[in-house]
Amino acid sequence: MSIIVRFAPSPTGLLHVGNARTALLNWLFAKKMGGRFLLRIDDTDAARSTKAFEEAIYRDLAWLGLAHDGTDRQINRLSKYSAAFYQLQAAGRVYPCFETEAELERQRSLHAARKLPPIYNRASLEPANKAKWEGEGRKPHWRFKLSRSKVGWTDLVRGPVEIDTATMSDPVLVREDGAFLYTLPSVADDIDMAISHVVRGEDHVTNTAAQIEIFQALGAAIPSFAHFPLLVGAGGEALSKRLGSLSLESLREQGIEPLAVASYLAKIGTSDPIEPRQSLGELAAEFDFARIGRAPAHFVPEELEALNAKLLHLLPYSAVAARVPQGEAFWDAVKANLTRLGDIEEMARLINGPVAPVIEDAGLAQKAAALLPPEPWDEATWGAWTKAVSAQTGARGRGLFHPLRLALTGLEHGPELKKLLPLIGRDRSMARLKGETA
Fold first, then answer.
1. 329, 347, 325: which is closest to 338 by C-alpha?
2. Is the Cβ–Cβ distance between 173 and 94 less than 8 Å?
3. Distance from CA of residue 228 to its chain's centroid?
4. Which terminal residue of the chain has fewer beta carbons within 10 Å of its beta carbon, N or C?
């Protein structure tokens, strides 16, 4: 079986961590199975879709490393949706409805007052109502006529699922202005693109029952479905009010690495430990629907930040060479102290200056300066030099190392000095030990 999945974002806003997770899980599954990952821009909402947001989708997916194997825009495929609609119409599975939104809202209110489910009552199927409303010159919207029977499938995440479509309203496929809503274009595209697996959030579970009936009405094969739990905040709250700060664009501006984002989104809500991976290939090899839990996945920004730091601490210089021109020795010296790659500038200042030294023990600093060995220096220099300073001054432990760190870097904590000292060099080390900014 050929594995083909799709990610179908709407260009009505920036990609955030929720829909980025959908894209990622689709991509990981496809790559693990040797399949194809298609990008489908759902831009049928002309009033809200923008070219800028569409370009941002391409940019954000490229930043994450999620290359697609094909792409299209739904606005280019309207003729296919019309053909599918006419096929359903010929089969008697769609019907015109004439109620206004106010009338439908009154109907929902009456159902609520009677503690009935808010299901459309199919009043437009009554010949008298249809004749009356057509006589008033009303333009219809079009609904798909559900079978009002049970629809079941084996979900790759949730297991066996069964939904009685008698508990659902017939979904609107076409608005009164002729615009297609989400449901029919999605199914028509999935058929035309031979989508084998639909991987998406569990908020679409109920939609799936209606979509399966549309697949069947169009005489098409039904894809497999996988519905994973949605992301929530640390306390279980919805993320909807924070999506601006959780957009991929925002995370990129904050200096979060794309592999940290991918590692985090791939692992939260699963039985796997949340640990960084150094490639998307590693994440794909580990992907398994069976590892995705049923509970909501908690997105905690502080966890992502910590994972970002862990990732940087693991990366070899080859992975960052284009962004760290200071060289491999510098990277090896400072990476364990980075939270974001942007911290590199501060680390470079420790070497190249200017550093205003803090002289905690002037006597110790003076003797340490006099004992500085000639260059060339390497990682063994620090140990030999501090041993000599200790022998002459009697200083040991914190009393030895803390004053030297303050003098050489001006900081309480920082990179290992055995790695940093050769990079600072003898001239700057001498100047700083004498209390000079260098």
1. 347
2. yes
3. 14
4. N
Name 164's bridge partners: 150
Q: Is 136 helix (H, G, I), strand (E, B) or coil?
A: coil
- Of 3.40.50.850, 3.20.20.80, 2.40.30.60, 3.40.50.620, the CATH number of 4-72+182-229 is 3.40.50.620
- At 48-62, the pLDDT tens digits run 899 999 999 999 999
**Closest CA relative to residue 40, chosen from 68, 21, 65:** 68
| 98 and 133 Cβ atoms separated by less than 8 Å | yes
Give the Cα separation of 37 and 27 in Å (integer): 6
- Please confirm whether the linkage preceding 229 is cis (ω < 30° from 0): no
Could you tell me the pTM of the whole model? 0.93
- Residues 290-342 have pLDDT tens digits of 999 999 999 999 999 999 999 999 999 999 999 999 999 999 999 999 999 99
Of 330, 332, 335, the C-alpha closest to 423 is 330
320 vs 328: CA distance, rounded Å: 9
**What whole-number distance in Å separates Cα of residue 271 and Cα of residue 294?**
11
**Under DSSP, is residue 315 helix (H, G, I), strand (E, B) or coil?**
coil
